Amino acid sequence: MIRLSALLVTLALNMPAAAGEPAAFGVDSLEAIKSRHTGRPFILGLWSVNWCGHCIAELTMLGRLVKSGQALPLVLVSTDTPESAAAIESTLKRLGLAQQESWVFDDDVPERLRHTIDPAWRGELPRSYLYDASHRRETVTGVLDESILKNWLKRQR
Amino acid sequence: MLRLFHRAVRWSLLSLLGIAAAAQGHSPLAEPQSDAKARAPKSTLAVGAALDGEGRLWLARVENQRLLVARSEDGGVRFSNPIMVTSEPENIAADGENRPRIAVARDGTVLLAWVQALPQRFTANIRFSRSTDDGKTFSTPVTLNDDGRVGGHSFASMALDSAGRVAIVWLDGRDRDAVCEQGGKFAGSSVYLALSSDYGARFSANHALTRHTCECCRTALTWTPQGPVAFWRNLYDGSIRDFALAYLDDGQVKRASDDQWRIEACPHHGGDIATDTRGGLHLVWFTNGATRQGLFYKRVDGVHESAPLSFGDAAAQAGHPAVAVAGDTVVLTWREFDGMAYAAWAMRSDDGGVAWGAPQRLAKSAGAADYPQPLSDGSRIRVVWNSAREGLRVLSLDEPAAARRAEK
Predict the structure, then answer these.
(1) Domain B42-223+232-269 identical in fold to domain B271-408
(2) Which CATH code is given to the segment(s) B42-223+232-269?
(3) pTM of the predicted structure, to 2 decimals
(4) Is the minimum CB–CB distance between B36 and chain A shorter than 8 Å?
């Protein structure tokens, strides 16, 4: 019961409204995201607005897919800090991803959050986890390949 | 529940502050003053530190967009009043793999190099200042990159010899930008350098050392009897992110690791290099390649290279290694995270890097923390570690016990 109410608070306060500023990603956030996507596939896309050209390359590709009408169940999580919220928001807007679910790491110890996502992840970016409807996931390190992504999306229908 | 609520409120306040700062044209990286106690200024935890010839500890750190220098005569217990190096506010990179670099020349000149992030994404300048009066005053900072472009110049490192020569290297985006502006494609960044022969009073024009390097890992630099040697994560075959080294005076680039780490990603995880009095090189680095994974050390003596020695606990995210040498003693440091807290780790060799003692956990921190750095004054090694809760700590390793033979 206590856990449920904590979850509800998380959902109410920390879930991204729609477009706009990124929500704060904490140690419970991945579970909250999975709950919200129960029975549905989603793409957990980890990126950084600071010092990551490959992240911008990947987001540019994703923005192009969205613009072409491709339905993308994207959950974008920036591994920066809330201080970068304005830069995150403007970057996603510029790349045509303003309508996507957006989060930003909010912990003085980012390893703690990395640990909740994947203890084996050493911080390389971009990094993606492709969750199918039953939330089995595939890990992709580095820029998502567009054809691999499209094949994965086809399999989710 | 209360904690979650506080987190949410804190986050909203931060957002408001961020928006207000952006509206005034300031950088969003500015530390929100009202929240300084609740939230440590994580973005400036990466400090520069050096021991001078008299064993004094010099510290360069960033506070409120200013670069400050202080020194300690008692091994880090008390520090002098900090002197402000930058008279104007600058958005100085002091987080992760970017840190201010400080070095003290044999004649007492104090040299500083740092990265000034600019408002445009991935752009920055390499800045330099020095003191010729034992750190009482500092010269007006100058920008070392001479391409006159708003572009990528970052991840600087610095080394000097005992006769006034200074080398500074950094990752530079000018070649990539020039190619991309012509509609072409360019893999990675470049390594550029500037040299001085008068303790940093004047620098040469910038030189390109090499093109097609990884973009977001720190560079490292050491001064050997054969001049300065740089070490950085390079690009091989377009996307293999293994390490290279180069003697700057002859400009020859040599592959330093063969790990076959092929990824289109930013590891944000560089290496380090130090030299012994005979000119032997001591390398440490991180890889997640097909050949090997984790932290590794090796010696390079001319054409002879030792086999890579694995160290650190990969299950505890051992990372961001550094190396220092004093006489026959070689010290490696790195950081681990056990799921709850960070720890600074070290291990030592007392025979020039052949046999190694057991890894030693030097200190823990439950909050945000910098990477530990070993410092040498030529005769002994101290480890400095900065963390949000505990502040700067100066740590020593245990004296050598039964050293085990390094794995061949």
Answers:
(1) yes
(2) 2.120.10.10
(3) 0.86
(4) no
